[in-house]
Write a structure and sequence with these properties.
Elements lengths: L27 E6 L4 H16 L7 E7 L5 H16 L4 H8 L2 E5 L5 H18 L5 E5 L6 H10 L11 E5 L7 H14 L5 E3 L7 H11 L13 E9 L8 H5 L3 H18 L8 H13 L6 H7 E7 L1 E3 L2 E3 L17 E6 L11 E6 L6 E8 L11 H5 L3 E7 L3 E9 L7 E9 H5 L7 H10 L8 H19 L5 E4 L6 H8 L9
Parallel strand pairs: 1-2, 1-4, 2-3, 4-5, 5-6, 7-12, 8-17
Antiparallel strand pairs: 7-13, 8-11, 9-10, 11-12, 13-14, 14-15, 15-16
Bound molecules: 6-O-phosphono-beta-D-glucopyranose (BG6).
The site of 6-O-phosphono-beta-D-glucopyranose has 3 residues, from loops.
Length: about 525
């Protein structure tokens, strides 16, 4: 139930929501499996370096790369430096020197049990050398097929167990399973050795500023919460549009498609923060419970709903950024007759007092016209009609646009009088851009995520029940669509299949962007 502000809802200064008051994490070793992979080089290492530069890493800290590469310490330092320079440009020399001292590398074959014993020995030495106190964060930035084996080996080598007074955590990258059964199996495998409280499932959308801001926007403003329901909201649109194609990841995408790649995880995270009930308090458990409870109220996708309320698409050749680009079926690694969807629109409905009758149109696609992720809340129009004013000018309901990326910000669209003679109305935006409002670099999503993982705050990570419920919801869609092929039905550089437009139009609505 909604409550008025109480002490339990106080946010602590300088912290991400629910975190422990801007605290510096405890001394620990960050063990990075897959340190030479693309994600580590582009995102994880730069995020750690940024945290270091901001003074947010503990004094006793070590970053240990664990990979097959035959790198000694110096060679690993050189490779990290190169990665950082590639993504951040020239480094501050002094900061780099101090950071570099915390780096180490263990050459190991992730499939060999003995190598984990060696890893454990090295970690104990590091504890003595650097005062990292036996605290460990294992980060699985490896191929998903290795998640299970690495977890088993860590467990069997005794590395998953914390001793008295220290902690062990594991961060698991996406994709977390490819369907409900595989997600459950991975959860079961993790749970053999790790408690739920030490498992951190990564979804980088939760680290985006505007996604975190959903909590503040909704519950920190008396203006919105009273209106956030079926009485005042007509419908909600969530658009997650990319201009990129599959970017050399064709063979991965062939096994995935947009529902698995984007909707089941990233988009459902946004949706759940947007539509959940107010959490009991700001603890990780309360916030995550509210999110999963929302998904419990989501109406299942029946064959009828899939036929009438969901649309899939696949891009054909077209223009993107002024360039001719190939269709999905012509991408490297993609079958010439591939039936994988690169676009999906799902109409989500929640059977709850708050949301009965309010559709949430959720769409995501590759090679669309613009790169934009945004939520548009369409409020119902007011009852008053101005004499002599007709058409959309008369009836436009207010809209709240929450722009997640790029150009993070908010816009509230309101009707206003056109200056001059007569009573003409038009909608205008009251807008706020993060970059202007705060005038500082917005942290990359991985910075708050890694920081909170190091601090032991799991608010920004996905809990077991959420990941399983998300899969459960999309399974009927995946099964129905898997039984036949998606055909190319939208040109690269367009706003997706025409059917997605018609679906809204038949309900008297239009997309905010197309
Ligand atoms: C990844 C998907 O998880 O998210 C990619 O695998 C997608 O296909 C990416 O491009 C989008 O992330 P962002 O932060 O650029 O919106």
């Amino acid at each position: 139930m909604l409550q008025t502000a109480t002490a339990r809802w106080d946010w602590e200064e300088g912290s991400s929501i629910g975190a422990t008051a801007g605290a510096i994490p405890e001394p620990c070793v960050f063990v990075l499996f897959g340190a030479s992979g693309d994600l580590a080089r582009r995102k994880l290492l730069p995020a750690l370096f940024q945290l270091f530069q901001r003074g947010l890493l503990p004094q006793g800290f070590a970053l240990v790369g664990a990979s097959l590469a035959k790198l000694d310490r110096e060679a690993f330092q050189a490779s990290v430096r190169e990665s950082l320079e590639q993504s951040m440009g020239e480094l501050d020399g002094l900061a780099w020197q101090v950071f570099a001292r915390q780096l180490d590398h263990v050459t190991m074959d992730l499939s060999r049990a003995d190598d984990y014993v060696r890893l454990g020995q090295r970690l104990s030495e590091i504890d003595r050398e650097r005062g990292t106190r036996g605290n460990r964060l294992f980060y699985l930035s490896v191929a998903p097929s290795l998640f299970g084996p690495v977890v088993d080996h860590l467990g069997e080598a005794g590395l998953a167990r914390a001793g008295r007074g220290n902690w062990v955590r594991i961060i698991v990258e996406k994709p977390f399973g490819t369907d409900l059964a595989s997600a459950r199996a991975l959860n079961a495998r993790l749970h053999r050795f790790f408690d739920e409280s030490s498992i951190y499932r990564m979804d980088h959308y939760l680290g985006k500023e505007m996604v975190q801001n959903l909590l503040v926007l909704r519950f920190g403003n008396g203006l919105f919460e009273p209106l956030w329901n079926r009485q005042h909201i007509d419908h909600v649109q969530i658009t997650n549009a990319e201009t990129l194609g599959v970017e050399g990841r064709g063979s991965y995408y062939e096994q995935s498609g947009v529902v698995r790649d984007m909707i089941q995880g990233h988009v459902f995270q946004v949706l759940s923060l947007l539509a959940m009930e107010a959490p009991e308090d700001l603890s990780p458990e309360a916030v995550r419970t509210s999110k999963v409870e929302l998904l419990q109220t989501a109406r299942a996708f029946s064959p009828e709903r899939i036929r009438t309320e969901c649309i899939r698409g696949q891009y054909s050749a077209g223009q993107s950024g002024g360039q001719l680009v190939p269709g999905y079926r012509q991408e490297p690694g993609v079958a010439a007759d591939s039936g994988v969807e690169t676009y999906a629109l799902l109409t989500m409905r929640f059977d709850s007092m708050r949301w009965a009758g309010v559709p949430f149109y959720v769409r995501s696609g590759k090679r669309l016209k613009e790169r934009v992720t945004e939520v548009v809340v369409h409020f119902k129009p007011g009852p008053f009609r101005f004499p002599g004013v007709s058409g959309p000018e008369q009836s436009a309901g207010n809209r709240l646009v929450i722009r997640i990326q790029p150009e993070e910000g908010l816009a509230l669209r309101i009707n206003t009088k056109v200056p001059g003679q007569g009573l003409r109305a038009r909608d205008v935006d009251m807008s706020f851009l993060y970059a202007q409002g705060f005038g500082e670099r917005l942290p990359e999503a991985y910075e708050p995520l890694l920081l909170e993982g190091l601090r032991g705050n799991s608010t920004l990570y996905t809990r077991r029940d959420m990941v399983e419920r998300s899969w459960e919801l999309v399974m009927p869609v995946l099964e129905a669509w898997g039984a036949s092929k998606a055909e190319p039905n939208y040109a690269a550089g367009s706003w997706g299949p025409a059917a997605a437009r018609s679906l809204l139009e038949t309900q008297g609505r239009t997309w905010n962007r197309e």
